[in-house]
Design a protein that fits this description.
The complex is a heterodimer of chains A (565) and B (526). Chain A contains 20 helices and four strands. Chain A is mainly alpha-helical. In chain B, strand 1 and strand 2 form a beta hairpin. The chains are: A mainly alpha (565), B mainly alpha (526).
């Protein structure tokens, strides 16, 4: 099958490296050109991501399979050859879920780079290099079809963000960066052990017999009951250790508020927008399909923790006085919805969960941007020290209210759809629908989570009131115009926030194309073979055949135009 | 076996020793210019040794000779010594005072020859001498490396403890000789340790005492707990480039000897009989990683920190020794190959870290503490980058070779399929997380912290070259580890047969004793 650009995913993932190379050539004091170069690079990557998306849809149309992985490419890495006895390879490919997250990442990055123009004034070159390296890592995670590559990129994202927080962060930046790094690493080394065990298990499993970390093969293995339950039990816990900390899940979320508060604006946006999704994406892409029995078994526990996280996060956010910390705790609460949705084991819930990931990335990312813009002018985020800003900053007030509404799930904006589907899936979890057997959650979970939505509206609107309305409160000596910033948002800042707002509206009003891209992928690649599946409803046309053998899956996917090198 | 074959097989080692004598002789020249150019001469000797190693007959063509048995393992160790040794030499280029260059570099050549001979030896006596040939020169080098009083102090400490360890090891060897009646490790027509241990009458208390004592001596060489205590003091006292040498050369010798002994007495995981030995190693491995990492957390001095980290890395490698070489249960189950891969990677990344330290000085004093490194990225961005790369590699973090090394080590433990080894691997990965905390301090000192002290560059061209090679190697071995892994795999072929022999013995049960080693020789002769 002819593609426009061969290896488009690799090209896209590695394109920031080229930008880094050019950044190295530019004089470190020439801030203007450094910024321009970083901006051009991130835009180019975004363009390549769009090309990849178009390419994906062409490939999916041509093969008439929207549920499969496309744009695949493979190169041997560890082990002598692809398909050898040791087969750990560089494998990339995307399906509907990962493609949408790739687009989110590539879309946020230019905005973040642009947003850093005024706030980052020292060590500019290092800053943009780290930011672009971070992009490589994040795109790598979403494109990876080999668990090894996945883990490498998953871990690698820690390094640039560690330095971004540690160098350009707030007063407690070193503590925050260290805590973030070591906390996350501790979880993921356990996952690392589980990954190695899984590869060995694939080797001793009949029908695979290869020491492989090919996600598709592992998924097939898991879906065919080839991993004993007691093994799944341990593996699930080990994977959960890695992903739950990243999410961050309720008892292990404590690194997040500190990291968010201390990080520079760009760090917070990327952290909330994309990095937290690495955890939920990991659960969705790896834990659920590879360890289906353990996932079902652990679902009530995970859902209980998710609900506790939703309510606890909301209550914590309620009492914060620091705006950024408030939004950070709201992330804990929101990511609880993501987890709840996917562990409902229902199409609606999982779809809602993916939508929630995207929406949270957009609206919370945007909120952090707005807060960053306020901070640049007032040098404080304490709600007691600022107030009534709607008067001096009408544009800012508009965007803050807009993204607040998006974040609390106002119908018509993006947040609503995800929230609704998550609750729907959770409440209906006990029923048999879409040919998926009953999950183990129920109405109680949904009701408790709905309480979180109410709390969410309370603390977000309270925050808006205290910051925007009432008498004008400004710390002495502010707004700070020393960096040439006008009292209200300037044109650049408005242009950063406008695309986010537009996307929020579009996704809120017309989410159908997105849902139609995500749903087949969830059916085929998350809940997949375990259920003898036939698609229900409108996506009936793309129902795949029931697949039982590993080879059959491989063969089917190969037909979609795998390009091995 | 005539003398000329003997010499041609050992020509690289002979070259190193002859080169050492040459360097010593020329090094006392009256002309200051000649005395100061001994480093160049030493490099030339290493280059000649490399050439000879390249021309040397391959181990398959070599038969067992008195005291010597050339295997693929000896070839791997020889090349590892020569290549990493050349880098170590470059890093040490300016360490000794001009008038002491001859002594210093001569000693260095001796030490390298000793490592190579360790891998060739097939006799307890040759093994003992080879190991002492590694160690004794290092005592001298520590004393020569700096004029500081701490260098003399650490040399004395190192010497006395090293001598004690050597005595313990020799005592253990004497027990092994006593129970088996032979000092030959394996092969040959007569009695050998391998035949003894393959027999059923083995594993009496004296054999066990002998092995435990021998392992204790080797544990000192690799700085494994509870014989690790000297490492921090000695590393701190020696000049930084020499510390990199101490972290690699004795460790390589120790692990090579350990592999050879284990191949003779049976790999623990394959052999139920050696269960006590296995548990001893298990505890030592777990203790070594944990002690090394936890104590490193408490250090402020980077050299001491890296000394403890070197202990921790020995612990990781002991996991590979416990797993043993490949047989049967999986392609990744080759703990010994993983150890060989890891030790080369460790040697290079450790060298990189110490080379950065030796490149800097604070008011004329060599950089040692975290404060000395603070804000390095402002003053020397490339050095800071190399330091960060090496720190992340030591941490076992992608995208560096240290990560790949850990993948091979720990996946071997999982492939072995035994709960005890899986637990050990989990202890290992958790230790990597502990390790991250202090390696991160190094990286963060370079990039995150503000400069505390006035740093100045002292390193020459050779040091910068070493830095560049080390940090590039970390990325290259990450992207393409296969070639080195393949070499390490083929190096373990010779020790693998011994493992299969002990499996065969377990299968045979208590029935008759089959001498296995001779067929083994034919395989190598043919």
């Amino acid at each position: 099958m002819a593609d426009w650009i061969p290896n488009i995913l690799t090209l896209m993932t590695l394109s920031p490296l080229l930008g880094i190379f050019f950044l190295m050539l530019i004089d470190a004091r020439d801030h203007k050109r450094l910024r321009l170069m970083a901006m051009v690079t991130s835009l180019a990557t975004f363009a390549l991501a769009i090309v990849a998306a178009v390419d994906f849809s062409r490939a999916a149309d041509a093969a008439d399979r929207w549920d499969a992985f496309h744009l695949k490419s493979t190169t041997a890495w560890l082990g002598d050859s692809v398909g050898g006895v040791v087969d750990i390879a560089y494998r990339v490919g995307v399906d509907g879920i990962s493609l949408s997250l790739v687009l989110l990442t590539a879309f946020l990055m230019p905005l973040v780079v642009w947003g850093s123009f005024s706030s980052i004034r020292e060590r500019v070159r290092e800053y943009f290099i780290l930011l672009l390296l971070l992009e490589v890592g994040m795109l790598g995670v979403f494109c990876a079809l080999d668990l090894f590559l996945f883990y490498v990129c998953f871990e690698f994202t820690l390094v640039p963000l560690y330095f971004i927080i540690g160098i350009w962060g707030g007063p407690q930046r070193r503590k925050a960066a260290n805590k973030f790094f070591i906390y996350t690493l501790t979880g993921s080394v356990l996952m690392f052990a589980a990954i190695l065990f899984l590869a060995h298990h694939a080797y001793v499993t009949n029908g695979i017999g290869v020491f492989t970390l090919d996600i598709l093969k592992l998924t097939a293995m898991g879906q065919q009951y080839l991993i004993p339950y007691n093994v799944q039990w341990w593996l699930f816990l080990a994977f959960a250790a890695g992903f739950a900390i990243k999410v961050p899940f309720f008892p292990v979320h404590t690194w997040l508020p500190l990291a968010h508060t201390e990080a520079p604006t760009a760090g917070s946006v990327i952290l909330a927008g994309v990095l937290l999704k690495l955890g939920t994406y990991g659960f969705l892409r790896l834990s659920l399909p590879i360890l289906p029995d353990a996932s079902v078994r652990f679902a009530p526990m995970m859902a209980t923790l998710a609900v506790i996280g939703i309510i606890y996060g909301a209550l914590c956010a309620w009492v914060q006085t620091d705006v950024k910390k408030l939004v950070a705790y709201s992330s804990v609460s929101h990511l609880g919805f993501c987890m709840l949705g996917m562990f409902s084991m229902k199409m609606a819930g999982a779809t809602g969960s993916v939508l929630y990931m995207l929406n949270h990335g957009l609206s919370t990312g945007a909120l952090f941007l707005v807060i960053g813009m306020v901070y640049e002018r007032y040098h404080t985020r304490e709600m007691s020290r600022i107030g009534g800003l709607a008067k001096p900053m009408p544009w800012m007030a508009f965007f803050l209210v807009f993204f607040t509404l998006s974040s609390i799930g106002l119908p018509g904006l993006n947040g609503f759809i995800g929230e609704f589907l998550v609750l729907l899936g959770t409440a209906a979890s006990g029923t048999v629908s879409d040919n998926l057997s009953a999950g183990r959650l129920g109405f109680g979970y949904a009701a408790a989570a709905a309480l979180g939505i109410i709390f969410g509206a309370v603390y977000m609107l309270l925050m808006c009131r205290r910051v925007l309305f009432g008498p004008v409160v400004e710390p002495p000596g502010t707004p700070d115009a020393s960096q040439g910033l006008p009292p209200d948002l300037n044109l650049r800042e408005r242009f950063i926030l406008a695309p986010l707002a537009i996307v929020c509206v579009v996704l809120g009003v017309w989410p159908k194309p997105l849902i139609e891209t995500i749903q087949p992928a969830i059916m085929a690649n998350v809940f997949q073979v375990k259920q003898d599946l036939q698609y229900a409803g409108e996506t009936d046309a793309v129902a795949p055949e029931v697949i039982f053998a590993v080879d059959a899956i491989e063969a089917a996917d190969d037909n979609d135009g795998e390009r091995s090198s | 076996m005539n003398t000329s074959t003997y010499l041609s097989l050992l020509s690289p080692e002979c070259c190193l020793l002859a080169g050492a004598c040459l360097v010593w002789l020329v090094g006392v020249s009256r002309s200051a210019g000649i005395r100061a150019s001994m480093a160049g001469l030493t490099l030339a000797v290493v280059a000649v040794a490399m050439f000879l190693a390249w021309r040397c007959p391959s181990p398959e063509a070599a038969a067992v000779m008195p005291g010597i048995r050339m295997t693929s393992l000896s070839e791997f160790v020889r090349w590892a010594t020569l290549i990493v040794g050349a880098l170590l030499l470059l890093a040490n280029w300016r360490v000794p005072a001009d008038r002491e260059q001859g002594e210093y570099f001569g000693m260095m050549l001796c030490s390298m020859a000793g490592v190579s001979l360790t891998a060739c030896s097939n006799d307890l006596i040759v093994l003992f001498f080879a190991l002492e040939l590694v160690s004794v020169p290092t005592y001298v080098m520590v004393a020569l490396s700096r004029t500081h009083v701490r260098a003399s102090e650490s040399a004395v400490k190192y010497f006395f403890l090293g001598a004690l360890a050597a005595a313990i090891m020799a005592y253990g060897f004497s027990f092994l000789y006593g129970v088996s009646g032979s000092t030959v490790l394996e092969g040959g027509a007569g009695q050998s340790l391998a035949k003894y241990f393959a027999g059923d009458a083995s594993w009496g208390p004296f054999a066990l005492i002998g092995l435990v004592l021998a392992f204790s001596g080797l544990a000192f060489k690799v700085a494994a707990a509870p014989f690790h205590a000297y490492a921090a003091d000695v590393y701190e006292g020696a000049a930084s480039p020499l510390t990199a040498f101490l972290g690699f050369i004795p460790k390589l010798a120790g692990f090579t000897a350990l592999i050879k002994l284990m191949a003779v007495c049976g790999w623990p995981a394959a052999d139920g009989v050696s269960a006590p030995l296995m548990w001893m190693l298990w505890v030592v491995a777990a203790l070594t990683m944990t002690v090394g990492n936890v104590l490193a957390l408490l250090q402020h001095n980077v050299k001491r920190m890296l000394a403890y980290s070197s202990i921790a890395h020995s612990g990781y490698m002991l996991v590979g020794i416990l797993v043993g070489p490949m047989w049967g249960t999986g392609p990744m189950r080759d703990g010994v190959a993983a150890v060989l891969f890891y030790i080369v990677v460790y040697g290079v990344m450790n060298l990189g870290a110490f080379a950065v330290l030796s490149n800097l000085s604070i008011k004329g004093e060599p950089a040692e503490t975290l404060d000395d490194l603070a804000g390095l990225s402002r003053r020397a961005p490339l050095s800071a980058f190399a330091m960060a790369v090496c720190a992340f590699s030591l941490m076992g973090f992608p995208p560096t070779a240290g990560f790949i090394g850990k993948v091979y080590l720990f996946s071997g433990a999982f492939a072995a399929g035994e709960t005890s080894l899986i637990v050990l691997a989990v202890i290992g990965v958790l230790n990597s997380a502990i390790g991250a905390a202090y390696y991160l301090k190094i990286a963060s000192a370079c990039y995150v912290r503000e400069p505390v002290a006035e740093q100045s560059r002292t390193g020459g061209l050779t040091q910068s070259f070493v830095l560049a090679v080390c940090s590039l190697a970390m990325f290259c071995l990450f992207l393409r580890p296969n070639d080195l892994v393949r070499q390490a795999r083929s190096a373990t072929e010779s020790v693998r047969t011994a493992g299969q022999a002990s499996i065969a013995r377990v299968d045979r049960g208590a029935v008759g004793i089959q001498p296995i080693a001779p067929s083994d020789d034919q395989e190598h002769a043919g």
